[in-house]
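for the recovery benchmark. tokens below, seq after
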């Protein structure tokens, strides 16, 4: 049989249609946002265990950045003086290096998950300022020696500013004083390789008082010659809030203050929250209550759709500001590996991520991956006014 030109054209058409189909089918998050920002996930120690293989496999396929969930926090890493558990952290860094990922260290200094011994001497007496600063330096020096530039960015300070814009009262500030954040960044800069990026990370960064306080903090640090490269907006958000306009105002304000914006711990909760339970204060835990766990048997299509739309709206905003955003990272991989199954209430069934409990992409994944970056980013809103 002779191949007519029409038959040949038809063949080409069918082959390219199949190729297109495969391409969309195979598109992963890191491919979809390759030209826009890094796309990350926090991974926990558990993922290196045998039973979590499929979830671990998902990580380098979909993401090009990882955050250390608990592994590098002071308590898990160095629970007692001279006692270190670096096996998990070593595996984490080796995994990121092997897969050529942007590896994030979380976190150098935080008021949670820091053992009490850190603040005391051998006789249990509280340390003074200079002894505590020295202890902070020792921690960073050890991490710098062990991981160097393999950890490409560190959350230097986590959650040191309150929603009202004031410096959080913590053992850190009680001993060191008002310049705790500045001292932490100075130590990080002195001890870590110069190519390691230094970030300030916090939740509820879309609230105007915290936003203004963080902008002021960045500007003050810069004015005093202290390096800060980026700000992490955690992004523990819900289906209802914060408003896109508030997210946008913070991205713009931080960028205008001269740092790169990282979305560091994104997850979107569909579960009900008690009034006043916004943000992500890990110290808050509420009583178990069946009425607060409405989707134990699965999430209905209507709610899946709402979650997909909310994710799409938020990612569309990120794309609009892709020049300002270095990384968008999720706090977890699949829904069963989310901390929101246990916070603020233990043992709930939560659905905050893009992959379901079997590791399959959810409607929210497809909604996000189908977005297109706008050709021309629309005009930025007017700069935020800094209130005194
Ligand atoms: C959470 C972890 O995911 C939990 O496993 C742990 O029990 C508590 O901390 N903001 C942060 C993270 O900066 O370190 C927190 O991680 C979630 C809120």
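predicted aa per position
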């Amino acid at each position: 049989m002779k191949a007519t030109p029409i038959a040949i054209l038809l063949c080409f058409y069918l082959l390219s249609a199949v190729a297109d189909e495969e391409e969309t089918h195979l598109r992963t998050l890191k491919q979809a946002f390759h030209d826009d920002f890094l796309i990350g996930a926090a991974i926990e120690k558990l993922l290196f265990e045998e039973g979590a293989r499929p979830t671990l496999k998902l990580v380098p396929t979909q993401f090009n950045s990882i955050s250390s969930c608990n592994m590098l926090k002071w308590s898990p890493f160095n629970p007692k003086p001279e006692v270190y558990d670096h096996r998990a952290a070593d595996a984490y860094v080796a995994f990121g290096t092997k897969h050529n990922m942007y590896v994030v260290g979380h976190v150098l200094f935080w008021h949670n998950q820091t053992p009490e011994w850190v603040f005391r001497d051998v006789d249990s007496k509280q340390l003074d300022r200079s002894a505590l600063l020295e202890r902070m330096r020792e921690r960073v020096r050890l991490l710098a020696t062990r991981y160097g530039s393999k950890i490409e960015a560190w959350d230097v300070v986590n959650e040191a500013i309150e929603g009202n814009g004031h410096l959080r009262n913590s053992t850190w500030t009680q001993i060191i004083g008002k310049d705790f954040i500045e001292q932490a960044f100075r130590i990080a800069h002195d001890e870590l390789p110069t190519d390691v990026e230094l970030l300030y990370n916090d939740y509820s960064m879309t609230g105007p008082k915290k936003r203004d306080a963080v902008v002021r903090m960045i500007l003050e640090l810069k004015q005093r010659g202290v390096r800060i490269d980026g700000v992490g907006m955690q992004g523990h958000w819900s289906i209802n809030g914060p408003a896109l306009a508030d997210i946008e105002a913070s991205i713009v304000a931080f960028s205008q203050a001269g740092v790169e914006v990282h979305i560091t711990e994104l997850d979107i909760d569909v579960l009900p929250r008690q009034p006043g339970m916004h943000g992500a204060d890990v110290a808050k835990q509420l009583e178990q209550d069946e009425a607060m766990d409405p989707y134990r048997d699965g999430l209905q299509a209507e709610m899946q759709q709402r979650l997909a739309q909310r994710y799409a709206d938020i990612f569309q905003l990120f794309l609009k500001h892709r020049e300002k955003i270095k990384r968008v990272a999720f706090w977890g991989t699949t829904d069963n590996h989310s901390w929101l199954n246990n916070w603020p209430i233990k043992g709930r069934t939560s659905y905050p991520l893009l992959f379901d409990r079997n590791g399959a992409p959810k409607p929210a994944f497809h909604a996000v991956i189908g977005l297109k970056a706008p050709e021309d980013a629309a005009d930025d809103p007017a700069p935020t006014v800094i209130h005194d």
